[in-house]
Write a structure and sequence with these properties.
Blueprint lengths: L3 H34 L1 H10 L5 H21 L3 H19 L11 H19 L13
Helix pairs in contact: 1-2, 1-3, 2-3, 3-4, 4-5
């Protein structure tokens, strides 16, 4: 059985680590789109999905991922950043993860994105520092 004192450590420190890891998912992904994959390659993928103005959309995606993901990592404006990333993730899910034709890993990509939305909802609900045993924001 897990002791209450251990749960309190997870509620305070674990929630902060969880926030950082959630933010890194988007931040690093945005940087990889910019540097390793390259905006042109990503725009080509977007075009294959039927996304109009893919050359513009790719920049909006990169900026969204880097800025909102970075905000979550550092714990600033997390509610707003999480809200933006929830909308972004739901749109990405609808456009690229709804069938085997769109996503070779279907339904894993769909379920992963829904889990990410769940984590972002939790972040919105409890803030950047998580909750303590008493149900108030942890320091």
């Amino acid at each position: 059985m897990i002791k209450e004192s251990h749960l309190e450590i997870v509620r305070t420190h674990g929630s902060k680590l969880g926030r950082v890891l959630m933010g890194l998912l988007f931040f690093v992904s945005g940087l990889l789109m910019l540097t390793v994959q390259g905006p042109d390659m990503v725009a080509g993928y977007f075009t294959s999905l039927g996304i109009p103005m893919a050359g513009v959309v790719v920049w909006l995606v990169i900026i969204t991922k880097v800025v909102a993901g970075g905000a979550i990592v550092i714990g600033k404006k997390t509610t707003e950043a999480a809200a933006v990333l929830i909308v972004f993730t739901l749109i990405a899910t609808l456009l690229a993860h709804m069938s085997p034709d769109q996503d070779a890993m279907f339904p894993n990509g769909l379920l992963k994105n829904l889990a990410v939305v769940g984590g972002l909802l939790y972040l919105m609900a409890f803030g950047p520092h998580g909750m303590n045993v008493k149900g108030t924001e942890a320091e």
